[in-house]
Amino acid sequence: MNALDYLQFVLAPQVVNGLALGVAVVLVALGLTIIFGMLDVINMSHGEFYAIGAYAALALGAAGISFWFLLVLVPVLMVPLGMAAERLLIRPVFDSRDRHVTTLLVTFGLALVVEDLLKVAFGPNTQRPPTPIPGAIELAGIIVPNYRLFLIVVGAAIVTGVAYVVYRTRLGAMVRAAAFDRNMAASLGVPVALVYAGTFAFGVALAGLAGVLLAPIYSVFPTMGRDFILLAFTVVIVGGMGSIWGAVVAGLLLTQVQALASLVISPVWTDPIVFGTMVAFLVFRPQGLFGRLGHA
Amino acid sequence: MTGPVLEIRDLGIAFGGLKAVDRVSFNAQRNRITTVIGPNGAGKSTLFNLISGALKPKSGQLLIDGVDMTGASPARTKAAGLSRSFQITNLFFELTVAENLRMAAQVLEPKARAFLPLGRSIRALAKTREMLDRFQLGHKRDELAGNLSHGDQRRLEIAVCLASEPKILLLDEPTQGMSHADTADTAKLVRELSKDVSVLLIEHDIGLVMDLSDHVVVMHQGRKLAEGPPAVVRADPAVQAAYFGHH
Amino acid sequence: MRDRLTLSMRASHLLALIFVAAALALAAIGAASGDTFYLRLGTEALIFAGLALSVDLLLGYSGALSLGQALYFGIGAYVSALTLLKVPSFWLAMAAAGGVTLVASILGGLIANRVRGVYFALITFGLAQVVAKVVYNTRELGASDGMIGIPVIEIGFGPVSVSAGNPVGFFLIVLAIIMGLYGLTAYLLDTPFGRVLTALKANEKRVPFLGYSVWRARMFSYVLAGLIAGLSGALYPMLRGFVSPELMFFATSGNAVISVILGGVGTLIGAIYGSVLLVVLKSIIGSWTEHHLIVIGLIFMICVMFLPKGLVGFIRPRIEERLLAGAREPAAPSFTSAQLEPGSAKP
After folding, report:
1. Which of A46-50, B3-7, B183-187 has the highest mean pLDDT?
2. Which residues of A touch C (CB under 8 A)?
3. Any domain includes C292
4. Structural domain boundaries, residue C215
5. What residues form DSSP beta bridges with B7?
6. pTM of the predicted protein model
7. Domain region containing B69
8. So what's the ipTM on this one?
9. How many domains does chain B have?
10. DSSP-derived pairing of the beta strands B168-172 and B198-202
């Protein structure tokens, strides 16, 4: 095989697949980083909310609801779930001595429960919804599955939209104010409790949306969240806890490193390489690539 | 040993472009009370952080008892004989009063006792008792530090600093938030302390400063504006303008 | 002069004595009835109690949550298994496991102790995850299947020896080792050095200004915790005859954290009670449904939210009051009776 063929048939598809995975990881990490940046809460059950989204898409899709409608319906259904989780689990321990550790532990417990509930409800087997956009197109000689292309485009749009809301709108400013100084924000008339619940629910809804989008590619199984969460946490840390753009850059970069490493070295070593990056960042640049949201 | 117990030469640090402490020099004499005053934001607390090792200076030199301690860690500075209190009470709030003192006095013990039962730390335990008596905290020895009144907490903070038998005691606004009676008591205490230990003080209460200090250093916008005996400093026109003018 | 933290530790010791007495009684019943299954289950619970003990040393005393303590447990188990496959010697296996986990935890500590709080939790989580993946993919270590066929060893104490295959005998040996590790940890925590750890948890920022190196204290507790986990893990292949990568997975670390929370953070003995409680809960719920994680997860969440000092944290203050009443008579220094718990104060 000559160099050009290698580029066209091996390297380029790998880069495209890596890009699709990157967008997927960014979507999951986005909610995680927002919840951390705004609420200072480590949501260990984030992966399980992602799984709930995927299962909801699977079940509702099987009931005949169109995939396009699900893209809106599932995130909307996730909002009350997120609100309830925040109200019942996060808020009671929000002011405890060590908020990070306590919220981490509570959401870890929630993750255990949800994972097992998904097993009860849907069985332990891997399932896969049909691809909403079948087929593939050729772009500059590279075969790209249509759905992956769609995922990349939609993912980019979602991230841009979220960043716009957080950084450029009045709503975002209000949320960032509440994150920065709760008491000051309250005195300025920001409904802090509602903002916190809403922010958590928003992060959860994003995880659910990621679940809907990724189910056709990565399949649906009860432990799917757990398998994704280390990568998502790595992205959040490397990008800078709470930074949206950091998560985007880190997510795309790390998945490319992963894709290329699995090609050049061996798939076995992709995790150590990705994690080594996380360790290096934690040791040498703990604030990540970008600072953190609301605390800039 | 003679000579100043603490020598500060051209000490400086900047945050971003702001020179929080700008080439400040002065000496603190043995068993004297040296007070740093200045308006808010003058750099007094930053200076304390530089001296105690909480911050590393960008320029200058710091000598404790003639030994260069520039850029040393808080633990090393402590080992050199410098103890500091904090402007905002900084104790082990969920430990008892006695344990707060014992923790501080533990440095008096030889290293070999670090892994022996606590009861063997004879000096530390004796020191703890001594401090409890001296600061009239004996009846509260088993209270959690977090449950003490503000005045008691401020006193415990000083006691903790003293329990390690330092050469130099840095007190960052020890009377902050205290009642008049407590402030007077604290002034008396500080004067008494200066018999055995050199005191470097940050204080806002000007009456107290003039009454208590042997030597006053005035800071303004990160720089040293003046220094000298209280009466001289008070008469200095530049000090009048920059500091007393604000009051 | 006796202080509250020492008093709390005494109360833990009393609970430890009760634990040992109960364990001995159960061993006697097991021996009399010729049981194997429950004795082996109990031995396993004790081995995992060692892991939980190491988690509590970190979380309950220096205040660092490790989500990857199974790493050292797994390393201990693998090193022990590898040693036993070559030389079936208990002491050699323990020494090798201890030595390797010592080195591994120094390396891990150098990395993990660069950061604190939630970053510490995530880095320990990641460290364990990556080593587990590497083991999972290493054929020499049996890859995903792990290593089987570890011989049943004779454990010699001078002239006498006990077979690891003897359910009662091995149960007692494991009980002695785990309680020994408990005793050692409890002793160290009640020395001046151990108190520096307690101080770290109470107010880490104040510690350097008292003249103690935070890094050294954190490093010491991390390495000690790694060693405890490793030595406990070394016992695992002796009991079960195999090791697998699951021993390093998050589920194992997570179980240890759950045990500590159930039993009581910062009580040491709570970790041991918690491990046994978790095994009991799992087998009771397991006899009724295979989805025991739903129930355990719920109990865990309730504990974190409403019973943050766990089972022992709930019982221990009552024991302390008793101890105090007993100590009062001979002109003891006066204690205020309320709030004897070292960490129970409000923020």
Report:
1. A46-50
2. 42, 89, 92-93, 96-98, 100-102, 104-106, 108-113, 115-117, 119-120, 226, 230, 233-234, 237, 268, 271-272, 275-276, 278-279, 282-283, 286
3. no
4. 4-248
5. B27, B63
6. 0.88
7. 29-246
8. 0.87
9. 1
10. parallel
